[in-house]
Amino acid sequence: MRPAYKLICLAVCWVVLLPACKSPGTTTDDTVVFPGFTTPENFPATTYHFDTNPVTKEGFELGRKLFYDGILSADHTISCASCHIQTSAFTHHGHAVSHGIQDRLGTRNSPALMNLAWSTSLMWDGGIYDLDLQPVAPVTSHEEMDESIDHVVQKLQSSPDYPALFEKAFGSNTVTGANLLKALSQFMLMCISAESKYDSVMRQEAVFTVEEQQGYAVFQQKCSSCHAEPLFTDGSYRNNGLTPSMVDDQGRYAVTLQDSDRYKFKVPSLRNLEYTAPFMHDGRLLNLDAVLEHYRNGMAVMPTLDPVFMQNGAPGISLTDEEKQHLLTFLKTLNDPAFLKDPLLAQP
Known about the structure:
Elements: H1 3-17, H2 57-67, H3 80-83, H4 136-140, H5 149-158, H6 162-170, H7 177-189, H8 197-202, H9 210-222, E1 237-238, H10 253-256, E2 265-266, H11 288-298, E3 310-311, E4 314-315, H12 321-332, H13 337-341
Antiparallel strand pairs: 1-2, 3-4
Helix pairs in contact: 2-6, 2-7, 9-12
């Protein structure tokens, strides 16, 4: 075979074989395929109002760009992703409370953003009842982004890229606050964590080890009344015996002004705990061992302490060392490393 002819043949073979070498989930131009919103097989029906804001490829991509853009903050230094980092299950791993512009400190730990299509209220105190309104809180908070929605809209309208992206997503190149918030919702709605080992077991694609199964039994007996499967939260607000912090954050009371809600905070999901420390609404507990010790021996008796924690007149959850170890083993099955690496959710 002549050298030139041999080179031509090799080139043809390379072009033919190249598409087969691409990783799953990509197209021939290396862009991530947009799958649309799908409810995982083992999940309940969603509660979000998709009829008023259906997730589209263009809306999602606009929301993703906004989520990672510091333009939402007053000095362009803080984005949503600053406190909600994908590799930490969209929370601020290692920080007790959120950090805003000029390194201002908030008073609460950044909650993980995942499975929000099933949330009927948001924030640690439940002060927001619609995902479309949730970004207003960090954008306008003095400690976080210290901006106004109106000024953000002006900045986006004046930018070289955003008007065209809004037109692709919503049919008009006029940027509005409503469409800004809808786009952010579309991105957050796609932050679905449902590929843990637990999910595989529930879908009968895998089985628990003996110790995982033992831990699952402990969980069902002693934790599931608050952390209901498969989301691992029942969405309720409870006082779990934490002593008041130095700032005396009284949680849901600030929203309802009902004395019965003092020091109640939203029950968080137990998914992806390996990546989301520290724990509790103010990040006071640094690891899972400390969390379980709190429930065993560290709970304070308070007027609004949830009755589920009172056993034989004393606060706490009875948990032997063996049960504790089994429970920690089971909780690891709720970790979803694929969620942390999903290219669809990564910074564009």
